[in-house]
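Ticket #4471: structure export looks truncated?
Reporter: QA, pipeline team
Priority: medium

Steps to reproduce: submit the single chain below to the structure queue and open the exported record.
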Amino acid sequence: MPAENDKTGGASATEPAQTASPANSAAAKEPKFTKTRLRRDCLTLFGVTTSTFDGAMYGETGQLTVKEAKQRIEKWKGTPVVPAKKKEVTK
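Actual output as written to the record:
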């Protein structure tokens, strides 16, 4: 039976299963880096010091793209500081 009559909608072996949009292909091609590598150039890449970078990346275990790291830093910089509550002294 010819492929034209295939009503399953599946992709043939000679054509891709899914066409990637430009946004998806750009994200797929963007290289990922370790935290150590991003930290080395954090001032140049993100305009932040290593201490700010360390705070924003605390708990991150995987590799990140530059864009993902920048988003994480911006989110962390926007987090409000909550002062600690004072302990009451009892006599």
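Status: closed, not a bug. The export was complete when the record was re-opened. Leaving a note from the reviewer for reference: Residues 66-77 form the longest helix (12 residues).
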